Amino acid sequence: MSIIETLKSGERISEKDAYKLYDLDLFTLGEFAFKKRENLYQKKVFFNSNRHINPTNICADVCKFCAFSAHRKNPNPYKMTHEEIIKIVDNAVANGADEIHIVSAHNAQTSWQWYLEVFAMIKQKYPKLHVKAMTAAEVDFLSRNFKMSYEEVIEKMLKYGVDSMPGGGAEIFAENIRAKICKGKVSSDNWFKIHELWHKQGRYSNATMLFGHIESLDDRIDHMLRIRRSQDKIGGFNAFIPLVYQRENNYLKASKFMGSAEILKTIAISRLVLDNVPHIKAYWATSTLNLAMVAQEFGADDLDGTIQKESIQSAAGAASANGVALKDFIDIIKTSGFTPVLRDSLYNELEIY
Questions:
Q1: Which whole number is the average pLDDT over 130-150?
Q2: Which of 20, 119, 154, 305 is the most exposed place for a label (fewest CB within 10 A)?
Q3: Exposed, middle or buried by CB within 10 Å (0-12, 13-18, 19+), for 348?
């Protein structure tokens, strides 16, 4: 059976055929990816009301693609107190957020209590607020820095009130590329080990892929297939989030940059390959809101959220520092011919506009 026949039949794409998908033209991929997302969600476009908080930028790692951590390109180190974080949460809740998304750099100058106890403080004050926090890279860092097993870190996350895990730290799973762009960070095998331990607790997480730098097209397919295998084995991934590499203020020497067509191709392919991951997120903070909306016609069904404030991608050039107003989200989705759906962090529908 040819790859086109497989796509027409709706059957699972084999691992061998997955590597041929980039050979297809954009509109062929878009046609099949859109059909798949339409069968799942019709014209719905999901988003949530959330606030990103990055409590520190002091990092033990020196990832070449990062413009956020305090190193030569960002000479302004900071570490928030728990009280400062709670004030931000107070303001976010007052502005309608129902999810707090907390991701920190790997700060060796602090304690594991600083990382984790703030979650209990948030939950004590706002029991119904969803806390999405602690990437696998952060779990690995705490494990190594404070001599705890992954299981012990996860046990503490559950104890202190973490509800779900972000997908960060995945970057590209190919270890030869990781050695060049994020040497010393959590390995790809350990990234999966941490997420699978979390999933075994009955909890959910996301998976990301940083693309458009020095990785190959085959590296991207390999990345997606590894996620598909893990999802087959245990489940637990709510969404796949392809993150467009941001080129400013970092030391990664990428020789060429992607156009919109390649970004849309990658999103369409992810929808076709990841038949067992419910949602494909076009994260507007790395692709612009307009392109994220176009991506809804190429297999994506989610935009992430209002964010309110964003520090990591904007440090590298993304226009996401101040988030997007709820009304703007609703308007752009409607004018694009889709139905805006406000969701919670686990994709329960809260309001259809």
A1: 95
A2: 20
A3: exposed
- Separation of alpha carbons 140 and 185, rounded Å: 8
In the chain, what is the straight-line distance between the N-terminal and C-terminal CA atoms, in Å?
42
Can you read off the two tokens belonging to residue 241? Answer: 């989030």
Tens of pLDDT, residue by residue over 308-341, are 654 444 344 444 345 678 888 899 999 999 999 9
Tally Cβ neighbours within 10 Å of residue 70. 17
Q: Is 136:164 a contact under the CB 8 Å cutoff?
A: no
CA distance 192 to 137: 11
Q: Nearest to residue 175, comparing CAs of 167, 187, 186?
A: 187
Please tell me whether residue 126 adopts helix, strand or coil conformation: coil
**Per-residue confidence (pLDDT) for residue 15, from 0 to 100:** 98
Query: Is 272 within 8 Å of 29 (Cβ atoms)?
Result: yes
Enter the DSSP assignment of 187.
P
Helix (H, G, I), strand (E, B), or coil: what is residue 255? coil
In 10 A of CB 162, how many CB atoms? 23
CA 339 to chain centre: 23
Q: What is the pLDDT of residues 166-192, one digit of tens each?
A: 999 999 999 999 988 888 889 999 999
DSSP class per residue in 286-329? HH-HHHHHHHTTTT--EEEE--S---TTGGGT-S-TT---HHHH
Whether the Cβ atoms of residue 246 and residue 286 lie closer than 8 Å to each other: yes
Which tokens in the block code for residue 283? 């994260």
- The structure's pTM equals 0.90
Work out the widest C-alpha separation in the chain, in whole angstroms.
Answer: 60
What is the number of alpha carbons within 13 Å of residue 253 lying toward its C-beta? Answer: 1
Query: What are the backbone angles phi and psi of residue 7, rounded to the nearest 5°?
Result: -65, -40
In terms of Cβ atoms closer than 10 Å to its own Cβ (0-12, 13-18, 19+), residue 193 is middle
- Please write the tens of the pLDDT for every residue from 69-83: 555 555 678 889 999
